[in-house]
Design brief:
- By secondary structure, the chain is an alpha+beta fold.
- The chain has a single domain, classed as Ribosomal protein S16 (S16 Ribosomal Protein, Chain: A).
- About 30% of the residues lie in helices and about 40% in strands.
- It contains 2 helices and 5 strands, in the order ββββαβα.
- Strands 4-3-2-1-5 form a 5-stranded mixed beta sheet.
- The radius of gyration is 13 Å and the shape is flat.
- The mean pLDDT is about 90.
Length: about 90
């Protein structure tokens, strides 16, 4: 079973809210998932992106592959944390 870490959409029409989940690649976007790892709210200023780091590390360790969007969000989060640490 191939597992991917991806976003699943929640929220109302024109008010998107996403959950970061570990899901089987065969499952539909908003369908069944294995575990919820965090949230992403693009409408907040600045956009909110929270992930449980321990569970994320576990899934990456066992071979889960993040989607392109989740990879980009993680990269941005690491960059912002590194910038905050230097300041």
């Amino acid at each position: 079973m191939a597992v991917t870490i991806r976003l699943t959409r929640a929220g109302a029409k024109k008010v998107p809210f996403y959950r970061v989940v570990a899901a089987d690649t065969r499952s539909p976007r908003d369908g069944r998932f294995i575990e919820q790892l965090g949230v992403y709210d693009p409408l907040r200023k600045p956009a909110e992106f929270r992930v449980d780091g321990d569970r994320l590390a576990h899934w990456l360790k066992v071979g889960a592959v993040p989607s392109q969007t989740v990879s980009e969000l993680l990269r941005r989060q690491r960059r912002e944390t590194a910038t905050d640490a230097k300041a």
